[in-house]
Design brief:
This protein is α/β, with parallel strands linked by helices and 171 residues long. Helices cover 37% and strands 16% of the residues. The chain has one domain: Alpha/Beta hydrolase fold, catalytic domain (Rossmann fold, 3-Layer(aba) Sandwich), CATH 3.40.50. The chain has seven helices and six strands.
Length: 171
């Protein structure tokens, strides 16, 4: 995504931070960083827990969001992972997922989504970690791109770029 935007849309600002393990701190840092951004023209993209976060940011800012196999109930799903873990992209780096983070995720869960048309959910039926039916039901009020097969990482991500770019008004 970074390479595509840099080559085709060099005027856009791409920001992909490494977020802290604390959901509260993560969203605080994001909201501080984007406080002066033009919310009417910005967009967020997130995958899995990042999709949950992107949905939350979109609700706060009314910007567009693309959610890739978004976590719907991360407090429930991550409660079993309290403890030390390695980062998926760098197994040498570790972080500690604390019990209080589960409550922080609950606190970020919005009872109702406003402006569902501003969130495109790309959902793979082959997601091996999250239930595609739960994602589909949660995001049913907005546009959904339901993908036969694929996986949690959306290994066929490039095939979805035209729809993603069109939704964001970039194509």
């Amino acid at each position: 995504m970074a390479e595509l935007l840099a080559s085709r849309y060099p005027q856009l600002i791409w920001w992909c931070p490494q977020l802290p393990a604390s959901p509260r701190q993560a969203m605080k840092e994001v909201m501080l960083a984007i406080a002066d951004w033009p919310q009417h023209s910005m967009a967020v993209v997130g995958s899995s827990l990042g999709g949950f976060y992107a949905s939350w940011v979109a609700q706060q800012t009314h910007c567009k969001a693309v959610l890739l196999n978004p976590a719907v109930n991360p407090a429930r799903d991550l409660a079993q992972y309290i403890g030390e873990h390695s980062l998926w992209h760098d197994p040498a780096e570790h972080f500690f997922f604390r019990e209080e983070y589960v409550q922080q995720l609950r606190d970020l869960t919005l009872p109702e989504r406003s402006y569902p048309e501003r969130c495109l959910a790309i959902i793979a039926k082959g997601d091996e970690l999250l239930d595609w039916r739960e994602m589909q039901a949660h995001y049913a009020a907005g546009p959904i791109r339901l993908v036969e097969g694929s996986d949690h990482a959306l290994s066929d991500f490039e095939a979805h770029l035209p729809a993603l770019l069109a939704f964001l008004g970039l194509d």
